[in-house]
Amino acid sequence: MNGQPLDTPPEARDLDLCLCHSCGLACDMTNEPETCPRCDAPLHRRKPDAITRTWAYMLAALVFYIPANLLPVMNTQMLGEGADSTIISGVIEFWQSGAWDIALIIFIASIAVPGIKFVVLTLLLVTAQRRSTWAQVQRAKLYRLVEVIGYWSMLDVLVVALVAALVKFQALSDIEPRPGILFFGLVVLFTMLSAMSFDPRLIWDTQRSEEVMDEVASH
């Protein structure tokens, strides 16, 4: 079909179909409709300006990541004495007090996960821009990993809320959020937007181009 090898299933563009990003409907693009006939969402054969938008969102997240780690995320008052805590100092304090499980959750959610996402997204963007065929299957798995861990990025904010609730149950103690938690929320938001903006089909574009060139050369 359309010059496809017998053992290769046709792709959506070979059948002139486009998957709606909102409801998942396979839409017929023969007449170039602008919106999905079922949910009326805009249709795009590819995510528009995927690389540019992904870079923009990721760099914005990286900018917010610095104050998120340097500024205090909460202020704890015990017996009238208050102390600000950053993410790192909070991890250390929880670890030293014996709450290693909470310390581990905060470390993974606030430091390890954003760092992994920055490294993976940068790798995906650079290799896509260079149209590299290196480790395509592994890069596709890395993209799915970023999507999965993105849903758990708000664990740190939830832990801070839980700690705040626990502290407020104690007499003569109080806890208040600090600007660092706002910046961390922005980091989570922009890293999720960055992952959503990247088009994983860019990983395979070079392979597709090479297959087309080989097919033309064989004829």
UniProtKB/TrEMBL annotation:
Keyword terms: Cell inner membrane, Cell membrane, Membrane, Transmembrane, Transmembrane helix
Pfam families the record matches: PqiA
InterPro entries, per database record: PqiA-like, PqiA-PqiB_transport
Subcellular location: Cell inner membrane
Residues that span the membrane, as ranges: 55-74, 102-127, 148-167, 179-198
Chief location of this protein within or outside the cell: membrane
Annotated protein name in UniProt: Paraquat-inducible protein A
